[in-house]
Amino acid sequence: MRRQTHTDTQTTYGQVGATQAPDLLQYPPQGFRPVEYRTRIGHGDARFEAAWSAIMTWKVQERSGIDVRVDEVPTLDEGAYTPVTFDDEGNPLDPADYAAPDGESHFSPEGEPFLTAGTTATLQMKAYGRHVEAPVRVVYVIDEPTRKGFAYGTLEGHPESGEESWVIDQTDDGSVWLTVRAFSKPASFKWKLVAPLLRVQQNKYTQRYLRVLVGD
Description:
Layout: E1 33-43, H1 45-55, H2 59-63, E2 67-72, E3 80-82, E4 97-99, E5 120-127, E6 130-144, E7 147-154, E8 160-170, E9 175-186, H3 189-192, H4 195-214
Antiparallel strand pairs: 1-9, 2-5, 3-4, 5-6, 6-7, 7-8, 8-9
């Protein structure tokens, strides 16, 4: 029997890609709690390049005290997962699908590979004195001239169910911004019992992400 991997499993929620919906905060997926944080982290092209490179190599998580274990990276024959996309009014455009990657390698200035859609990883962290593992899959990547980032969705074993995105964008005046969006709920009854603690942890790490990039 073939060993089951994260690629074989489904995300633990059905609304893959919904962090891109413009009206996420007003109309989140039913039963989920939405959040959004946006902050200015600098100015200029060099700042933009440094920030999105950190985002796309897991550096923000690692510098925030999270150990990232990359479990699987899509190969050329596996293809890459592309979720449903939305227009400016929040209407779904293309359905979720797997698309073959172009085979091109992308690396940071330090020689680290940029993450790609379909990558699975396990985030390892301490919470209230306990070791917690949170399996995730990268469900989409944004690669535009002035806007770059990604989102991951939760897999079985994660304390929460939902999706979180990190996007770096540069506005016309040269300002560089980080936007973190998410929707989540406890993954099981056990985690529902400590839902307030989960929210505290989520907020704590989000604030760390913001501080890491502001001080990068």
